[in-house]
Amino acid sequence: MVVSPDKIHDNSLPIRERMETLVRVKQQEITQALAGLDTVDFHTDSWTRGDNGGGGQSMVLQNGTTFEKGGVNISVVHGKLPPQAIQRMKADHANLKGTGSDGSVDFFACGLSLVIHPHNPHAPTTHANYRYFETIDPETRETQAWWFGGGADLTPSYLYEEDAKHFHQKHKDALDKYDETLYPKYKKWCDEYFFIKHRGETRGIGGIFFDDFDSKPADEILHIIESCFDAFVPSYIPLVEKRKDTPFTPEQKQWQQIRRGRYVEFNLVLDRGTQFGLHTPGSRVESILMSLPATASWVYDHHPEPGTEEDKLLQVLKSPADWV
Amino acid sequence: MVVSPDKIHDNSLPIRERMETLVRVKQQEITQALAGLDTVDFHTDSWTRGDNGGGGQSMVLQNGTTFEKGGVNISVVHGKLPPQAIQRMKADHANLKGTGSDGSVDFFACGLSLVIHPHNPHAPTTHANYRYFETIDPETRETQAWWFGGGADLTPSYLYEEDAKHFHQKHKDALDKYDETLYPKYKKWCDEYFFIKHRGETRGIGGIFFDDFDSKPADEILHIIESCFDAFVPSYIPLVEKRKDTPFTPEQKQWQQIRRGRYVEFNLVLDRGTQFGLHTPGSRVESILMSLPATASWVYDHHPEPGTEEDKLLQVLKSPADWV
């Protein structure tokens, strides 16, 4: 489907329609950029929520020449949220209220979520996700509460400081254009969110992360989200281009597998989106678990030797650095 | 350490000491039986809980000739449980009460937990765990509430019905010796407990599972637990002996890797013991996550062709069979 990007900036349209257009356009743009580095192309699956409203489109590349596994998914869903779900959200959104006679709420949500795992242990894994949520008055169809969330982060198996700096700088630039207070806040939030408590280490070297973002006009936040989206390809693609053909040893591949085990631990034990999806009836499990790597390994009581490249990464995961 | 098994049957000793002896004896017996099938031996790590009481002994075999990874761990711990932990347990144990001035409770717990992952995709993975928990009056040191829990289950990548029958029969026999109502109940409980909700399938072909077992005299339950323990080696070792050298294709190995991915999903998302351990400060994470396989794989939207051996397993995981 070809989507006209003009709608993104059309002020006469509701934010929900503009954000939906943005995620559809970015899915095409990002998958094209990634496919440019591989001889295998993305496979597209469209799905609907059945009795509920909306659906999504998963684009997955498996067993490519550069990428072992990568998925760029969008979902555009609407329907009614049960009163319990509303109750949980109220802590962060005072103006959220039940509107149906049973306390249920009409909602709309859309977002893009991607995870890319290259083969080469020197090329980093990445994840990004930008999403919009709103509740709707069932009478007037006007937006009631709304917020944006999202972020992008990098998970290398080997630390190249210049790569970490590059990734952070691109995302800092994207935010600074609108508000210089955002990057420091979202960088810190990212380190905190992706902290694997039971391991005492972060999943990767961070990036940006934010949620419940409703403190500026929605139109302005949409521009910020677009700016972050625009930063993604230039922040990540050059790193893969640079590292995808770097020679590596079997030991380096094995270290990557262990780091992927930690990635799985974070996603299955701690990631709120994954938890929510797995416990929500009607979710498309394949799209949620697309984030898991094609291969992962767990070695009992594995600790890299001090001073090695593996240990250098671990030290940064144990105490996050400021990259820019 | 050599432990005298005589204490297991010494009625003059408290149950806690007899159960501790049982798990220590069984750790030696089971690891010896497993090591007999491999050229690599178990590596032993002893650990203590630091400021808290007790500790454990992890015995792990990695990268053997028969076993890719296996662990047989025991823990024998004691100390004080905070009031919140007691609150959660009260639903099942009415006679459980806070005894410290702050509502905390003195407790003792011991158990053995094992997970064995063979290399060969025709040889099944297995898990077993037997445990005892009690609360103690801080004045008299007498046992207040107590219960046993445990079970053993089998997770094949390929279904050999005779293997499933053998494993179930041995555990049925072990329980029938004491009470013929137990196996049907614990077999069903096992199928329910190891159900991976988000996949609509069980982790494996089941076995037995029970918790909060305090409905018979403790001495009698201890004998039942010993009987289950005794069933383990004869229920599992012959299956590995029979399958460990069966020729297999790369496709069969890959199917095993996918099934191991599901194993990881169950353990990290649903297993109560793992969840409890990962969220409890002071846990030894390496011992808890010893259960994870050395290698696992996630393939997007993978479904075996109907009528294949892979599909035959899936059908049984989707609707559990009665094996004996």
TrEMBL record, chains A, B:
Pathway(s) the chain acts in: Porphyrin-containing compound metabolism; protoporphyrin-IX biosynthesis; protoporphyrinogen-IX from coproporphyrinogen-III (O2 route): step 1/1
One GO-annotated biological process of the protein: protoporphyrinogen IX biosynthetic process
Alphabetized InterPro entries for the sequence: Coprogen_oxidase_aer, Coprogen_oxidase_aer_sf, Coprogen_oxidase_CS
SUPFAM superfamilies reported for this sequence: Coproporphyrinogen III oxidase (SSF102886)
A GO MF label: coproporphyrinogen oxidase activity
Key words, A-Z: Oxidoreductase, Porphyrin biosynthesis
Entry-linked PANTHER family: COPROPORPHYRINOGEN III OXIDASE, MITOCHONDRIAL, OXYGEN-DEPENDENT COPROPORPHYRINOGEN-III OXIDASE, MITOCHONDRIAL
Cross-referenced NCBIfam families: PRK05330.1
Record's subunit section: Homodimer.
Family indicated by similarity: Belongs to the aerobic coproporphyrinogen-III oxidase family.
Protein name in UniProt: coproporphyrinogen oxidase
Lineage: Eukaryota, Fungi, Dikarya, Ascomycota, Saccharomycotina
